[in-house]
Amino acid sequence: MGERVLVTGGAGFIGSHLVDLLVAEGRDVRVLDCFHPAAHSRRPEYLNPAAELLEGDLADPAVATAAVEGVDSVSHQAAMVGLGTDIGDIADYVAHNDLGTAVLLGVLAATGFSGRLVLASSMVVYGEGRYACAEHGVVRQPPRRAEDLDAGRFEPPCPVCGAPLAPAPVPEDAPADPRNVYAATKLAQEHLCGAYARETGVSFAALRYHNVYGPRMPRDTPYAGVASIFRSALAAGEAPRVFEDGGQRRDFVHVRDVARANLLALDAGAEGAFNVASGTPRTVLEMAEALARAVDPGLAPRVTGAWRAGDVRHVFASTERAAAGLGFTAREDFEAGMREFASAPLRA
Fold first, then answer.
1. pLDDT for 47-64, tens place per residue?
2. Which residues contact 236 (CB under 8 A, 6 or more apart)?
3. Which value, to the nearest 10 degrees, does the dihedral of the CA atoms of residues 223, 262, 185, 212 take?
4. Distance of CA 129 to the CA centre of its chain
5. How far is Cα 7 from Cα 14, in angstroms, rounded to an integer?
6. Which of 167, 222, 231, 346 has its CA 20 to 30 A from that of 82?
């Protein structure tokens, strides 16, 4: 029997694409998924039938124990994602993301697991991206002020002199600064896994996904990514509503690239955090326009000027560490990916 890989959250958006790659590689794959109603209305038809499926909550020690039995490596994808609806979601995020991770790690330690552990993390741990002032160099940017956002002043100024800043790619050693509940739970996952790895000697890598898009994304929900929200609006014959002035820079990376990064990370020995991104930043408005062109060229995005508390202005990745440590560079073409995403079925 070949290597057995546990993929938690393996029925989800990214996890299911990884499962397909692992099966195609001839690996023995076990999926654990709780089919949380925020992500699933039913068991998805796309789930690879060659994978063993366990249904249950990772925070249940009995479920976690059954899931890790006999596995050689673990890809921990299971999590509640997105900004949710409001602060009332806080206990659900902590329970699914942090308690679930803690139970998994405790069971791995108790069973003497000695394989590779890869965690699905996120660029949200950085908070605002990296900025440089012409006079003061790289500066830490505090949260933007509500009065500035209300007045349409979306670009953060230098906190020292107030001058305009130049956004730059964020390296993995940038200070963490989570700005919302989801971000805080993702950083906690990294710290928990890091502590487990140091105490047990297990090899561990955290993949900080940037803005992932592609087939199998969930439909428009408070937990969906911006690409899915725009795609759902266009499918309903509505113009995508772009917040602020649309100039927010992000790195949109295709789900197939992200799945491949996970496969490489499972096989690599490199440890620590790695950005998983395309390496080509684009504005949110550019993404909305590309998607609109593919769905309905006559339906242009609508820039609203509205803003959301907890949103950051620019965050895009430095990709050198993933290339050197994992051998990962993105391959998928953005325009072709948006055309595919425009007609791909979304998860109900």
1. 999 999 999 999 999 999
2. none
3. -30
4. 16
5. 10
6. 167
Residue 204 CA to chain centroid, in angstroms? Answer: 18
Q: Which residue has the tokens 């890091």?
A: 194
DSSP string, 140-162: PPPPPPHHHHHTT--SPPPTTT-
Q: How confident is the model at residue 66 (pLDDT cuts 50, 70, 90)?
A: very high
Q: Where are the alpha helices (DSSP H) in the chain?
A: 13-24, 61-68, 90-93, 100-110, 146-150, 181-200, 226-235, 255-267, 284-295, 320-326, 334-343
The DSSP 8-state label assigned to residue 115 in this structure reads: S
Using only C-alpha atoms, what is the Rg of the chain?
20
Structure tokens belonging to residue 184? 């805080």
149-168: pLDDT as tens digits: 999 999 999 999 999 999 99
How far, rounded to the nearest angstrom, does the alpha carbon of residue 200 sit from its chain's CA centroid?
26
> How high is the mean pLDDT of the chain?
93
Biggest CA–CA distance in the chain, Å, is 63
Query: Which residues in 17-100 belong to E strands, given as ranges?
Result: 28-33, 52-55, 73-76
- Structural tokens at position 210: 């940037």
DSSP type of residue 220: S
